[in-house]
Design a protein that fits this description.
elongated; 3 helices; 178 residues; alpha+beta; 6-stranded antiparallel β-sheet
Length: 178
C-alpha cells in the first residue's frame, strides 16, 4: 500500500465570484436608477410655472408685450377636467383659438388646460370654468414636451447602456483561490 501525501488542491484560472457579480450588478442598477431619476427631475424642473395667479371665476385680463404662444394653467384642478375649460379673447372681444393638450401636463399644483397663440401685443381675456377645485388661472410659456421626452428617453437608454456594461464587467471579474 502506498501512501500519498496530501497536497492542497489549487484552482488555477478565472472563476466568477458571486459576491463581486452581485456587487457590480447592484451598483449598476443604483447608478442606472440615479441616471433615470436625474433625467426625469431635470425634465420636470424645466416645466414652466405661472408667475402670477388670477383668482377664478372672474376672467383674467392679461397684457402681453408681443406675439407668442402661451400656455394656460389651472391651479389645484383635476387633470381631466382642466382640458377645454378655458377660453381666450382679445381685448376687443375677438375669440382666440385654444388648443387642448394631448396629455396631462402638471407643473407643481398647476395643470395645463390649453395653449393659444397671441398674434399681437395687447390685452387678452382668459376665462376658465373652476373645474375640479381649480381656484386660479395662470399663464406661462408652453411646456417643452420634446425636451421632456428627450430627457426621459435619454435616462432610460443611459440606464440600459450602463447595465449592459456593468453586467459583463461583473461576469468577467477574476477570482483566485489559493
Amino acid at each position: 500500500m502506498s501512501s500519498m501525501g496530501s497536497s492542497p488542491v489549487r484552482f488555477v484560472g478565472r472563476k466568477r465570484p458571486v459576491v463581486a457579480i452581485v456587487l457590480v450588478f447592484v451598483l449598476g442598477v443604483a447608478a442606472s436608477g440615479g441616471l433615470l431619476v436625474a433625467g426625469v427631475l431635470t425634465a420636470v424642473g424645466k416645466m414652466p410655472t405661472p408667475a402670477t395667479a388670477h383668482p377664478l371665476p372672474a376672467p383674467a385680463r392679461i397684457s402681453l408685450d408681443g406675439p407668442g404662444k402661451w400656455a394656460i394653467y389651472l391651479r389645484n384642478s383635476d387633470a381631466p377636467g382642466s382640458k377645454g375649460a378655458c377660453t381666450v379673447a382679445t381685448g376687443e372681444g375677438t375669440a382666440v383659438a385654444v388648443e387642448s393638450p394631448a396629455g396631462t401636463v402638471q407643473s407643481g399644483d398647476w395643470f395645463l388646460a390649453g395653449t393659444y397663440r397671441a398674434e399681437q401685443a395687447g390685452d387678452y381675456l382668459v376665462g376658465c370654468r373652476p373645474v375640479g377645485g381649480a381656484d386660479a388661472v395662470g399663464l406661462a410659456e408652453p411646456p417643452d414636451v420634446r425636451g421632456f421626452v428627450g430627457w426621459l428617453v435619454g435616462g432610460i437608454l443611459g440606464s440600459l447602456v450602463l447595465l449592459g456594461v456593468t453586467i459583463p464587467a461583473g461576469l468577467s471579474l477574476p477570482l483566485r483561490r489559493r
